[in-house]
C-alpha cells in the first residue's frame, strides 16, 4: 500500500488533534460512568449523550490513527522548488482568460479549496507536478479542458 504524502506541519496538527481527542475521550468516559450511576440508562440523557460522544470521538481517533500510520511525512524545506513539487505555491496564468490563479500543492488530508490548497493526487495537482517556470500545459476535468502557463513557483510557508 502506497503511503499518502503529508507535510511535517500537517502531520503535527493531526498528532496534536489525536492527543487532544484522547484527553477528551477520558473526560467523556468519566461522565458516562457518573451518569450510569443515576439509574435507568435507557432514559438517562446524560448517559446517552456521553455514550454518543465517546462513539464519535472513537470514530475520529480511528480516522486520525490511519492518517498517522499510513502517511509519509515530508519536510518541504528540504525539497527544491525550482520545479513544481509537493509543498509548492504555484501561480499560473489561465491562457483562455489571462487571469492569474494561485495553487498550493499539499497532501490529501491538508486540502482546502477555499484556500486554494489542492491535493498532489487531484487532476490539477498531478498535472502541475514537475512543471517548470514558463511551461505551458493542458489538463481536463469532466470533459472541460484548461490551458495554463506557470508564472511562479516557490515553497509554501505555513503560518
TrEMBL record:
Keywords assigned: DNA-binding, Elongation factor, Protein biosynthesis, Transcription, Transcription regulation
What range(s) does the Transcription elongation factor GreA/GreB C-terminal domain occupy? 80-154
Concerning InterPro entries, the annotation shows:
GreA/GreB_C_sf, TF_GreA/GreB_CS, Tscrpt_elong_fac_GreA/B, Tscrpt_elong_fac_GreA/B_C, Tscrpt_elong_fac_GreA/B_fam, Tscrpt_elong_fac_GreA/B_N, Tscrpt_elong_fac_GreA/B_N_sf
Annotated GO biological processes are: DNA-templated transcription elongation; regulation of DNA-templated transcription elongation
* Organism superkingdom: Bacteria
Q: Which GO terms describe its molecular function?
A: DNA binding; RNA polymerase binding; translation elongation factor activity
PROSITE patterns given in the database record: GREAB_2
Answer yes or no on keyword Zinc-finger: no
Where would I find the Transcription elongation factor GreA/GreB N-terminal domain in this sequence? Answer: 5-73
Record bears the keyword Transcription: yes
HAMAP family found in the cross-reference section: GreA_GreB
What's this chain's function?
Answer: Necessary for efficient RNA polymerase transcription elongation past template-encoded arresting sites. The arresting sites in DNA have the property of trapping a certain fraction of elongating RNA polymerases that pass through, resulting in locked ternary complexes. Cleavage of the nascent transcript by cleavage factors such as GreA or GreB allows the resumption of elongation from the new 3'terminus. GreA releases sequences of 2 to 3 nucleotides.
What family does this belong to? Belongs to the GreA/GreB family.
Name the record gives this protein: Transcription elongation factor GreA
Q: Which gene encodes it?
A: greB
